[in-house]
Specification:
The protein contains five helices and four strands, in the order H-H-H-E-E-H-E-E-H. It has about 170 residues and is α+β, with helices and mostly antiparallel strands. Strand 1 (about 90-95) and strand 2 (about 100-110) form a beta hairpin. Helix 1 packs parallel to helix 2 (about 45-75) and helix 4 (about 115-125) packs antiparallel against helix 5 (about 160-170).
Amino acid sequence: MPRRGTKVDTLSRKVLERNRRKFTKDLLSKLASLINPTPQAPKWKSLDLLDQATAHVKQLEQRVEMLKKRKQQLEGSTDETAGMRGSMSTVFTVTELDSAVQVCLMSRSNDKSILTRVLDVLEEEAAPVVAVSYSRVGDMINYIIYSQAVCSRIGIDSSRVHEKLKRLTAGP
């Protein structure tokens, strides 16, 4: 058995430390890809990445609360208000993420053109779409749309995007 402080002991500690650093680096890169799923994701410093992840989780919690309230409102409506629900059939949130915007859109599955109109609004605001995902629940479709600013220095005016989408979903 080698004595403490020998060359073999030092090498095994170096290997263990290298493996630990590689494992940590891999976990941080996975976290970075979850926070910013765009292909040209920036390189993050560890502390900045953890701060960004914390902010992202808080935004997600706020969005979950807003969606729970909206769900309660929709479930609370009666058959008498079914005619009014047509105008409330689309719900959306706009979340600003550095030089990107995330739009969460919930609409009735019979409204086929809403996604195209939302994509048009994002293109008008110089925020080309880089990723779209969707899921279907009953007669509702939930879209998550990620847009990246054409110029990261200028960014995206999420309030303008929100106002345009509000007018768009209000209907004629």
